[in-house]
Amino acid sequence: SPSDPHLVERARAAKEKLGSKVFVLGHHYQRDEVIQFADVTGDSFKLARDAAARPEAEYIVFCGVHFMAESADILTSDDQKVVLPDLAAGCSMADMATAEQVAECWDVLTEAGVAEQVVPVSYMNSSADIKAFTGKHGGTICTSSNAEKALNWAFEQGEKVLFLPDQHLGRNTAVRDLGMSLDDCVLYNPHKPNGGLTVEQLRNAKMILWRGHCSVHGRFSLESVEDVRARIPGVNVLVHPECKHEVVSAADYVGSTEYIIKALEAAPAGSKWAIGTELNLVRRLANRFAPEGKEIVFLDKTVCFCSTMNRIDLPHLVWTLESLAEGNLVNRIEVDRETEQFAKLALERMLALP
Ligand code: 13P
Ligand code: SF4
């Protein structure tokens, strides 16, 4: 628990011993007991930039999930070591697009005669392999805080976008921010022959959405929004763009974790908010802003934590820091050179977006 004095003391001592050799990054969805030891906290985009801005740190301890640690490894120098405190901290969404499936999809697009018009845009929440595919085919990475810019950029390069792997972020951004219609989007199902699409559908589509989703955000429903509005009159509904289109359409505000925090910082005293994102963050914000008279509730009580984010706990962090302090490099995340080269291209295109 966050208050286990023994573990807190050990984490503090190991971190002190390591000094500037270690830099600890914490995603907003991490537990409080872990966040208290983060040198910086942020959303996926901010953390990718922050990781790249610490060339003096020998160890980057990434308290987040596997794809974030991979991205940090890609963006940092070869002699910097990125460490994930629990190797089982994956992401179910990232796992929904494998390199083989995406290569097969590209073959389908090639056979349909549309591949030359397609620019891939991959959400940060994807493996390094998918990022490399994206870089190789002239595409960019995006996060939930720059998806609109990334899509605008992509439509300057080509007529169609293949959006991987989160169908919801892709659809929400295309429809809400770029003013497309739902009919401009088709859903590519990697488990069906030809993605379950006809050649004509592929030729007519502007947005080809990969059939992936976040298992946490996918559980918020239109009913969650209607219920909270009935329960709390005047409530502002603020959700993450990984939520379904119907949820995002019914919400008042939509944005990344960093956006959610800024919106609540700027909210007036007495305002009421229902937040549709991961529970660790919502609880932390509810506690932080309660003294200012801002009432913050979780959008749907039946939705729970992101189980993989939660794998990073204080015992894992203590073990990691103590191992590093004793000179044992544990749980290193290292992307191979060829993958890194192409994935970096795609990540750098994102970092160069206006
Ligand atoms: P952001 O921090 O970019 O909003 O991403 C949310 C998320 O699901 C990370 O796994
Ligand atoms: Fe993946 Fe969703 Fe968890 Fe983020 S919240 S790490 S997208 S499963």
From TrEMBL:
UniProt GO MF annotations: transferase activity
Pathway membership: Cofactor biosynthesis; NAD(+) biosynthesis; quinolinate from iminoaspartate: step 1/1
Cell membrane recorded as keyword: no
Co-factor note (free text): Binds 1 [4Fe-4S] cluster per subunit.
UniProt cofactor(s): [4Fe-4S] cluster
Binding-site residues for iminosuccinate, renumbered to this chain: 27, 44, 123-125, 144, 240-242, 257
Family annotation (SUPFAM superfamilies): NadA-like
EC numbers, comma separated: 2.5.1.72
Places the protein is found: Cytoplasm
Residues reported in the UniProt entry to bind [4Fe-4S] cluster: 91, 214, 306
Reactions catalysed: iminosuccinate + dihydroxyacetone phosphate = quinolinate + phosphate + 2 H2O + H(+)
Keyword Nucleotide-binding: no
InterPro entries: NadA, NadA_sf, Quinolinate_synth_A_type3
Keywords assigned: 4Fe-4S, Cytoplasm, Iron, Iron-sulfur, Metal-binding, Pyridine nucleotide biosynthesis, Transferase
Family, similarity comment: Belongs to the quinolinate synthase family. Type 3 subfamily.
Role summary: Catalyzes the condensation of iminoaspartate with dihydroxyacetone phosphate to form quinolinate.
PANTHER family: QUINOLINATE SYNTHASE, CHLOROPLASTIC, QUINOLINATE SYNTHETASE A
Protein name: Quinolinate synthase
Gene that encodes the chain: nadA
